[in-house]
């Protein structure tokens, strides 16, 4: 009997990374169940509508979308996930309460697989290496936190050994494994090898303002700088809105409401820009590694613009990008790149 797998997915980017792992390890789709755990319809619909691969898995479950009471959805999801304790879990977010529950419920001899959920993987790998990684817990006074505490083995530790499948080449702990994700599958499937370079700047939107990681002034100043940079060079600026971003002003940019992960959009494009810019989007690093002619630029967030976030972790992302060739600049230096 062949080994079975369960994919626990929250976003399109996680799904891409899970597909890459399956192809890297030559795992058949029909040996895998997929559980789309997001409570956001837009994220689930992007996976269902944009990836034909989703049709070929053994089963696809969407347990947290619906109009039922949250408690009922929670308990039904727990019951669903309990059946996968003999499967190897492939999770897209190690800090997600459902992912932790499945990992902790797995048989002892099963090594879980964690794929990237953006640049958060940098911090996880470094902390695991120092035996300092601790997952977060929802506040017990909230309904979600109380249910997690009561039903999801929140006090049980994660397994000693985890296999990470990551594009970030950071030494794992002595008990963990690291397999590098080179995005060979999506390059082979989507890349247009005859693309032209055009006088455009593509700016990748983020939900940092919505999450209160930055203050409103930061967006205003940086967007104005993008506008001036484009005008002085005669470049069109296209702004790719993040799926949960609420853009109040278009700043004269062409607004792109993209329904597929940016990496795939870029690979398929017959015309690519001279610049792609964002704060610290993982797309900058992923595409930079693929050695395109486009220049990928990370905009550093000034200290006086910072809101509620763990900025030590974000500084680690900027440092990693610089060490690996991504240009990281202060917004005042934008005219000189």
Rounded to the nearest angstrom, the distance between the terminal CA atoms is: 57 Å
> What's the helical proportion of residues?
25-40%
How many individual β-strands?
13
Strand order of the largest sheet: 3-2-1-4-5-6-7
The assigned CATH architecture of the largest domain is: 3-Layer(aba) Sandwich
Q: Which parts are unreliable, with pLDDT below 50 for 5 consecutive residues or more?
A: none
Form type: globular
- Assembly type of the chains comes to single chain
Hey, roughly how much beta strand do the residues contain? 15-25%
Q: Mind telling me the CATH class of the largest domain?
A: Alpha Beta
Query: What kind of sheet is the major sheet?
Result: 7 strands, parallel
Give the SSE order as H and E letters.
EHEHEHEHEHHEEHEHEEHEHEHE
**How many helices?**
11
Average pLDDT level: 91
Number of domains: 2
Determine the structural class based on helices, strands and strand pairing.
alpha/beta
The CATH topology of the largest domain turns out to be Rossmann fold
Radius of gyration over all CA atoms, rounded: 20 Å
What's the short story on this structure?
The protein folds into two domains: 5-182, Rossmann fold (3-Layer(aba) Sandwich), CATH 3.40.50; 191-336, Rossmann fold, CATH 3.40.50. It contains eleven helices and 13 strands. The protein has helices spanning 12-24, 41-50, 70-82, 97-105, 120-129, 143-151, 184-190, 216-233, 262-268, 282-289, 311-323; strands at 5-9, 32-36, 59-61, 88-91, 113-115, 163-166, 177-180, 196-204, 236-240, 254-256, 271-278, 295-300, 327-330.
């Amino acid at each position: 009997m062949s080994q079975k797998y369960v994919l626990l997915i929250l976003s399109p980017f996680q799904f891409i990374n899970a597909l890459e792992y399956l192809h890297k390890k030559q795992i058949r789709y029909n040996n895998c169940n997929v559980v789309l755990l997001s409570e956001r319809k837009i994220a689930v619909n992007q996976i269902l509508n944009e990836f034909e691969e989703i049709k070929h898995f053994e089963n696809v479950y969407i347990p947290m979308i619906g109009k039922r009471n949250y408690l009922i959805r929670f308990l039904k999801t727990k019951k669903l996930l309990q059946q996968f304790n003999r499967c190897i879990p492939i999770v897209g977010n190690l800090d997600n309460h459902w992912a932790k529950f499945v990992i902790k419920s797995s048989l002892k001899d099963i090594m879980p697989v964690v794929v990237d959920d953006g640049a958060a993987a940098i911090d996880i790998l470094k902390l695991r290496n120092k035996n300092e990684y601790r997952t977060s817990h929802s506040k017990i006074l909230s309904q979600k936190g109380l249910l997690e505490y009561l039903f999801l083995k929140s006090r049980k530790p994660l397994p000693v050994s985890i296999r990470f499948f990551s594009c970030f080449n950071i030494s794992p702990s002595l008990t963990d494994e690291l397999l590098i994700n080179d995005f060979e599958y999506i390059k082979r499937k989507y890349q247009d090898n005859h693309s032209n370079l055009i006088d455009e700047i593509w700016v990748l939107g983020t939900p940092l303002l919505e999450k209160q990681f930055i203050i409103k002034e930061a967006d205003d100043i940086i967007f104005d700088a993008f506008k001036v940079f484009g005008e002085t060079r005669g470049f069109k600026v296209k702004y790719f809105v993040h799926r949960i971003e609420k853009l109040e002003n278009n700043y004269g940019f062409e607004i792109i409401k993209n329904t597929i992960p940016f990496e795939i959009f870029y690979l398929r494009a017959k015309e690519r820009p001279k610049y792609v810019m964002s704060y610290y989007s993982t797309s900058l690093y992923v595409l930079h590694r693929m050695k395109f002619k486009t220049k990928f630029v990370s905009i550093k967030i000034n200290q006086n613009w910072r809101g509620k976030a763990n900025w030590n972790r974000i500084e680690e992302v900027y440092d990693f990008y610089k060490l690996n060739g991504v240009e990281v600049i202060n917004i005042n230096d934008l005219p000189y790149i």
